[in-house]
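Note to self: user wants both folds in one dump. Writing first protein now.
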Amino acid sequence: MSTSLAYLVDDDEAIRDALAWLLNSRGIASRAWSSAESFLGDYDFSMRGCMVLDIRMPGMGGPELFDRLLEIGCRLPAIFLTGHGDVPLAVQAIKKGAFEFIEKPFNDNELVDRVLAAFQLDNDQQRLDAGAELTAVKLSTLSSREREVMELILAGKYNKVIADELGIAMRTVEVHRARIFEKMGVKSAVELAQLLAASR
């Protein structure tokens, strides 16, 4: 898994330097860009951590950058740095899924704490995604008949009812059920239901 970084996007060099120094002093690595356009050009889906975006920049501002990134499926948590008059813009970004906005001049500890919280959110999301991918791989190993049986198991039906509905012997249903549990790595219908719910 890639190392978590704080991706700093701000046109003010003094702020970029101050942020990088502050984060580094707390053991947080960062990379900086002077414009939204340059960050968008460098953005890569393998990036892990969070973005710290200035709301107002020449050309593309932070909210527009955030919109563009959402359109291409970026899920990095975004923290917006806002001047006093930009709070309504920041609130709009929060409604679209931004992680946080912090008003300038910001409290150093508060900013670092929010970056660390955003890192945690990103890590949690990565874990969920990895779990969902693994479940999808397991599901792909089921035969079409096993899938039919699984749907009926998940509907809470007994082996005898499943056998009647599918026109097969009850012993065959038992074999399918055992294979499904084995392939999915579960011991019960309840575990199976939980696994599938967690991956959705």
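First done. Writing the second protein, which came from a different request thread.
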Amino acid sequence: MDVSQGLDTAKDDDQFAATVREWLADNLTGEFAALRGKGGPGREHEAFEERLAWDRHLAAAGWTCLGWPKEYGGKEATLSQQVIFHEEYARSGAPARVSHLGEELLGPTLIAFGTEEQKRRFLPGINNVSELWCQGYSEPGAGSDLAAVTTSARLDGDQWRINGQKVWTSLAHLSQWCFVVARTEPGSQRHKGLSYLLVPMDQPGIEVRPIVQLTGTSEFNEVFFDDARTDADLVVGEVGQGWSVAMGTLTFERGISTLGQQVGFARELSEIVELAERNGAASDPVIKDKLTRAWVGLQVMRAHAMRTLSSVDATGNGGEASVAKLLWANWHRGLGELAMEVAGASSLLAGDGAFGEDADLSDQQRLFLFSRADTIYGGSNEIQRNIIAERVLGLPREARP
């Protein structure tokens, strides 16, 4: 079944949800059956090539880029249809997508800020999953404080020459392109003088070094630019005005797909509850109270997302995205701690004592280890609170050196 048929013939949201469920049930079979539950944060190394094939299978059937305008290969699905798809996808146990950064971040950014030439060049490759993207934001001295970026780009004839270093670059070792925030105006400071560049990864001037994380896997990397090149016209938005484009991307990052993320959270909580019932931890009134509070927190997150989703735009000035990040990041980090508490003393040792991609970690251990970073990546708690205080509440700016 082609998604276009499902979108056009569904008379209501219930019918569309049934269409999505039917397609997923029919297609998560055969070669794709073993992919259920694979991938995701801390597990991006799992069955990557097979998940890439699955993403391309989705694309061939029209299930990618649902909310994009039809002129750019999308289906112009309604907000409720997009929400339904992400939630049904998560409930089915379908594998984590490998094309998230292109489809959910760069694609909407190009549609909002890019030139027609850029849209024609890059959107088809995102839609059909023939080109994968990574995000060149953070640096050793510019993590959540993105305005401290020092990676430079200088115009040299008909190309930009890029020098500097990015860090925590997810899937850079598997991507063909990177959207990079670089300082294009010498002597500029903070938000001024930044530009948003589209840079090919396969070139001599780029070196990618994996970073081993707490889970023993390496899904993110350091990326070094040593006279790396990209064409002069591959700037999204105006030269020197990249800050607003970068903030637009972060706003899209915290959009509709977060509801699918929350379904995944609910599945993790359900598994922890089942473990507590099996090992007797659920009889402890303190544990029972914490499990109940976790369930309540999940409902609060969903209610907030549904209430604010339609009001979030590319400016990111309303603070909704920052509130959402604070809600889910702190809740999920707490869930990781609760998972270890429910698992008990056995959670302190890996099953085989090994460390690395093949370490025999339980689901609870992997959840705990990776979720320690939830309140840091994508904008730390401190930065999100500053955004809310300064841009929404109008409080005095925090003193900066």
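Dump finished. Worth passing along: Residues 115 and 236 are 7 Å apart (CA to CA).
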